[in-house]
Amino acid sequence: MKKVILALVLIVVLAGAFYEVKHFNTSTSNNQNVSQQRTSTSNSSISSTNSNTSSPQINSNAFNSKAIDFKLKDLNGKDVSLSDLKGKRVFLNFWASWCPPCKAEMPDIERLYEETKDSDLVILAVNLGEDKDTVKSFIDKNNYKFRILLDSDQTVAEQYSITSIPTSFFIDKNGTIVAKKIGAMTYEEMKNYVNTINK
Predict the structure, then answer these.
(1) Is 63 part of any domain?
(2) 80 and 168: one domain?
C-alpha cells in the first residue's frame, strides 16, 4: 500500500514539475515573440521604448474607443492635430521607408488619395523614427501626394500601441476608431475599411 501511495505522490510531483516547466517555456517564448516583433518594426527605438504610464494608450483590441489626439509636423513643417480633423473621416497609417510591406501598399494609398482628395476622407501616413530628409526623399522619388507626418521619437506610435508596421486605423467623424488593420492592404481592402467609417 505504501508503494502505491508513494508512486501516486511521485506522479503528482512530476506532473506539477512538468506543468511549471511547460508554463515557463510558453511564457518565455511569448515574451521573445513580442520582442522580435517589436524589433522588426524599427532599426531604432520601437524595440526599446519603455511604456510611459502617464501617457494614454490605445488598447491593441480597442475598437469603438476614442482615438488619442496628437500633434505632429508634416514634411512642410506644419503642425497637424488629430483633433483639428473632427467632423472628417481619417485613415491613419503608420509606416517606415525601410519596411517592404509599407512600401508595397503605398501606391494603393496614393490611388485612394487621388480618388478621395475632394471628399471628407483625410489620409495621414505617420512615419516612425526616420529623419525628415530620408522621408522627403522617399516621398518625392515616388511622387506621393498624401499627407506625411513625422513621429521622430515614436511617441504617437507608443500611444497607439504599434508593435509592427504597417498598421492602419480608421477613425470616424466623432474621433472614434471603427477599424484597425495590421499588415499591408490592397486597394480593395482599403476601400472596404473606408466604407466602414460613417459618411
Answers:
(1) no
(2) yes
Cell 502505491 -> residue: 4
Domain count, the chain: 2
What's the pLDDT tens digit per position in 130-173?
A: 999 999 999 999 999 999 999 999 999 999 999 999 999 999 99
Closest CA relative to residue 94, chosen from 65, 143, 58, 52: 58
Peptide bond into 56 cis (omega under 30): no
Q: What residues contact residue 63 under an 8 Å CB cut-off, 6+ apart?
A: 177, 178, 179, 180
Q: Which three cell numbers stand for residue 72?
A: 505632429
Q: Convert the pLDDT of each residue in 91-132 to its tens digit.
A: 999 999 999 999 999 999 999 999 999 999 999 999 999 999
C-alpha grid cell for residue 161? 500601441
d(CA 176, CA 156): 16
Q: What is the residue-averaged pLDDT of the chain?
A: 79
CATH code for the domain in which residue 133 is found: 3.40.30.10
pTM greater than the 0.85 cutoff: no
* Strand (E) or helix (H) holding 122: strand 121-128
